[in-house]
Amino acid sequence: MFYSFTGKDANEVWSKATSELMSEQNITTPSRSGNNIELLHALIHIEDPTQRWTTNRVPPISIGFALAELIWILFGSKDAKVINYWNPSLPRFSGISDQYHGAYGYRIRHNFQIDQLERAYLTLKNNTDSRQVVISIWDPKIDSPDNQGQPVNQDIPCNICSLLKVRNNKLEWTQIMRSNDILLGLPYNLIQFTSLQEVIAGWLDVDIGSYTHYSDSLHLYCRDLEKVGISNDLKILNKDSLFLGKEECFYNVNEIYKRMMKIAYNDNISEDELYEISELDSNSSAYRNIMYIITLYVADRKGFKLLSERILKKCTNELFVFLWRNWKGEK
Predict the structure, then answer these.
(1) At what angle do helices 186-204 and 116-126 cross, to 10 degrees?
(2) For residues 101 and 137, is the Cβ–Cβ distance under 8 A?
(3) Which InterPro entries does the record cross-reference, listed alphabetically (predicted)?
(4) For position 26, what pLDDT does the model report?
């Protein structure tokens, strides 16, 4: 079978794919993590990748974790302590370790002794028509199963590679995945790689084209069948833009990640310190809003109620505010 889901935004394609998958509940497939329902060979196509947020996912996505993970990826980190702060349950899925084996950002920027984001940028800047830009994540030397067919690590990357092309002055992006959990993975994968698409389009100063996402196994574990649902599609648009020049982009990414490290490695951070951390000195409202939501998560986790309210009022992205309140159950 082959499945195809096309839509204007992430909400539309996620809803279509989830509805199709849920209709297959009577057909289960075994796996090492339990039985699941599965769509083999699923193609997802998003016309406007800037509308990357699945606001209609039930349960709601964690906006704090999603944005922290995006910065963690862009920085090229594999530091488990940092990203675990924004998702304490992550070790249950990726294993207990100081460094995550399959960290996408590290794979993209360091694993192959080359910064693949930089090489992709330089290639497309100097040869716009190139068909050879492939950003590799899968490393067969360290990711392939052992001779008995068993995983060599708990954190084996689900993403294989990204294919980038510029056509009609637009950056087109194709993402290839070997395995994709429609509840726990897909909404975040769409955020991760459409964001990378917008970031590199900014470096190249070209428009953002469409986003195509191939999942060879799009699935949902049977234990999660009662958890997943589709809420009404609210038309709140993402108006923030990650479209910046390369130097300005990395100034923001590096500064935010430095502050994330300060938070993750300081258990006794005060309200005053956290408020100071939340104020990013940047001309980009998009990155300022990212910093606000990342620190809002921390303030909420520490029980700094007044500070949480203060930071939330500073965020100018209406969609981020909605997603935060939705996650907190404040609708």
Answers:
(1) 50
(2) no
(3) Thymidate_synth/dCMP_Mease, Thymidate_synth/dCMP_Mease_dom, Thymidate_synth/dCMP_Mease_sf, Thymidylate_synthase
(4) 64
State the residue for tokens 């994968």: 189
Q: How far apart are CA 42 and CA 180, in angstroms?
A: 10
Distance, CA of 314 to CA of 311 (rounded, Å) = 5
Q: What is the pLDDT of residue 228?
A: 95
Q: What is the CA radius of gyration of the chain?
A: 19
Contact yes or no for 303/269 (Cβ under 8 A) = no
Kindly state the helix (H) or strand (E) to which residue 67 belongs, with its residue range.
Answer: helix 63-75
Give CA–CA dist 275/309, Å, rounded: 11
Instruction: List phi, psi (to 5°) of 194.
Output: -70, -30
Burial label for 210, CB within 10 Å (0-12, 13-18, 19+), is middle
Nearest to 151 by CA among 179, 182, 187, 177: 179
Phi/psi for 53 (5° steps) reads -100, 125
- The maximal CA–CA distance of the chain, rounded, in angstroms, is 56
DSSP output for 254-315 = HHHHHHHHHHHT-TT--HHHHHHHH----S-HHHHHHHHHHHHHHHHHTT-HHHHHHHHHH-
pTM (whole model) above 0.90: yes
User: Mean pLDDT, 10 residues at a time, over the chain (331 residues)?
Assistant: 96 96 81 88 98 96 98 98 97 94 98 97 98 98 97 97 98 98 97 98 98 97 93 89 98 98 96 98 98 98 98 98 91 41
> Cα(307)–Cα(310) distance, rounded to whole angstroms?
5
SS3 of 176, please? strand
The answer to whether 188 and 61 are in contact (CB under 8 A) is yes
CB contact set of 150 (below 8 Å; sequence gap of 6+): none
- The answer to whether 193 touches 162, Cβ cutoff 8 Å, is yes
Instruction: Report cis status (omega within 30 of 0) of the bond before 30.
Output: no
